[in-house]
Every structure is written in structure tokens, then in C-alpha cells.
């Protein structure tokens, strides 16, 4: 199974996918990593292990993902033979044409129990809201924001003294466990 990963940040979820591939629990290969942020550590992580890692130009606007950039991304992924696309901390909203290029083949990981707390900094939303439980969700990507059909979820408690950062750290442990598992479930590998 050839995977393409899109990320804007540290890439710890991509690392978890790589680790699952390395220990034989996921029969897959990451063939291309793309980032809209040339300084993102995800690019360095990929290059360190010899995975092609490229920057995509999306223009300056925070979450906008221009159509031309999406076409370019779809083309690069196809050229690399990608069969499934994993969004891993990718901070832009995917729409058609990228969705149309990979129907039912784009997954995302989100740091809440969707449909609760979609959007940015979901862990902070949970703390600010006084939630006693949160978690993470792997879901299919559709044209909405964090709205596609759910593949897997994991719960974590929100503790009385949690800060946004401490909750995020607890959620990430579960993200790293369920993302490779969700890929396995969806791809049947
Ligand atoms: C994760 O918390 C993920 O749920 C969210 O962005 C963060 C990415 O972290 N979509 P990383 O880049 O995988 O470390």
C-alpha cells in the first residue's frame, strides 16, 4: 500500500505510521511527504529516512488551499503512485479537486472525539469547555471541516489540572496508536 502524507508541523503522526511499518504491523510504504510549510519538521523526519519530501506552494492565507495547489498535489501524489493519502497535522481544508482524485482514500487525524470540537486547537477547546473526556478521531476526509465518516476513535480523560498542552500530549499518545490501526482497517492490509 503506497501512502502519501500531507503535514504542516512536527510530523509525529507520520513518525508513528513509519514505526508501525518498521515493526511489521502495517504493510505499507510512505512514498511521498508534502508540506505547505518549508520549515515543518515533518519534512526533515521524512528526508532523514530517505523519503521524498517536497514543499507545496499554497499562498499565504492560513487555511485556504487554492485549487491550483490542490491540482498540483493530486498530480504529485499520482505520479508517486500513492494509493491512500494521510493528512497528519495538515492545516488546510481539502476540497475537490484533491478529493475527486482520491475518492474515499483520504484520511485525517483530529484531536477530539468528533463531532465534538472540530476546527483548530481542539484540545484547548476541550479544556476551556470544562470537558471531562476527550480523545482523537481518524476519519475520512470530505469537503467539510473535520466532518467525514469516522473510522476509529480513542478516548482520554481530561484531568482537573490539565492545561491545553498536557491534554494534547495525552491525546497524541492515542493518535500515534490509532492512526496506523485506522489505515490498516481502511486498506485491509
Ligand atoms: C495532531 O494533534 C493532529 O490530531 C492534528 O494536528 C496535530 C499534528 O501533530 N490534526 P503531528 O504533526 O503529527 O505531530
From TrEMBL:
Residue numbers binding N(1)-(5-phospho-beta-D-ribosyl)glycinamide: 11-13
Class of the enzyme per the UniProt entry, highest EC level: transferase
Coiled coil: none
Residues forming the catalytic site: 110
A GO term from the CC aspect: cytosol
Formyl transferase N-terminal domain: residues covered: 2-183
EC annotation from Swiss-Prot or TrEMBL: 2.1.2.2
Residue ranges crossing the lipid bilayer per the database entry: none
Domain of life where this protein originates: Bacteria
One MF annotation (Gene Ontology) recorded for this entry: phosphoribosylglycinamide formyltransferase activity
Reaction it catalyzes: N(1)-(5-phospho-beta-D-ribosyl)glycinamide + (6R)-10-formyltetrahydrofolate = N(2)-formyl-N(1)-(5-phospho-beta-D-ribosyl)glycinamide + (6S)-5,6,7,8-tetrahydrofolate + H(+)
Keyword entries, A-Z: Purine biosynthesis, Transferase
PANTHER family, per database record: PHOSPHORIBOSYLGLYCINAMIDE FORMYLTRANSFERASE
Similarity remark: Belongs to the GART family.
Reported function: Catalyzes the transfer of a formyl group from 10-formyltetrahydrofolate to 5-phospho-ribosyl-glycinamide (GAR), producing 5-phospho-ribosyl-N-formylglycinamide (FGAR) and tetrahydrofolate.
HAMAP family reported for this sequence: PurN
Protein name per the record: Phosphoribosylglycinamide formyltransferase
Naturally occurring in which organism (per UniProt): Oceaniferula marina
Amino acid at each position: 500500500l503506497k501512502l502519501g502524507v500531507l503535514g504542516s508541523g512536527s510530523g509525529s503522526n507520520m513518525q508513528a505510521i513509519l514505526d508501525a511499518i518498521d515493526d511489521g504491523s502495517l504493510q505499507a510504504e510512505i512514498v511521498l511527504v508534502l508540506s505547505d510549510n518549508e520549515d515543518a519538521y515533518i519534512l526533515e523526519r521524512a528526508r532523514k529516512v530517505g523519503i521524498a519530501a517536497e514543499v507545496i506552494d499554497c499562498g499565504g492565507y492560513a487555511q485556504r488551499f487554492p485549487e491550483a495547489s490542490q491540482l498540483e498535489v493530486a498530480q504529485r501524489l499520482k505520479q508517486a503512485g500513492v494509493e491512500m493519502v494521510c493528512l497528519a497535522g495538515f492545516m488546510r481544508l481539502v476540497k475537490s479537486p484533491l478529493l475527486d482524485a482520491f475518492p474515499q482514500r483520504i484520511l485525517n487525524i483530529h484531536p477530539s472525539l468528533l463531532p465534538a470540537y472540530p476546527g483548530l486547537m481542539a484540545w484547548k477547546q476541550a479544556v476551556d469547555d470544562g470537558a471531562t473526556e476527550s480523545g482523537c478521531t481518524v476519519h475520512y476526509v470530505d469537503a467539510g471541516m473535520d466532518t467525514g465518516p469516522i473510522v476509529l476513535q480513542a478516548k482520554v480523560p481530561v484531568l482537573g489540572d490539565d492545561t491545553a498542552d498536557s491534554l494534547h500530549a495525552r491525546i497524541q499518545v492515542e493518535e500515534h496508536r490509532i492512526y496506523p490501526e485506522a489505515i490498516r482497517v481502511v486498506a485491509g492490509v
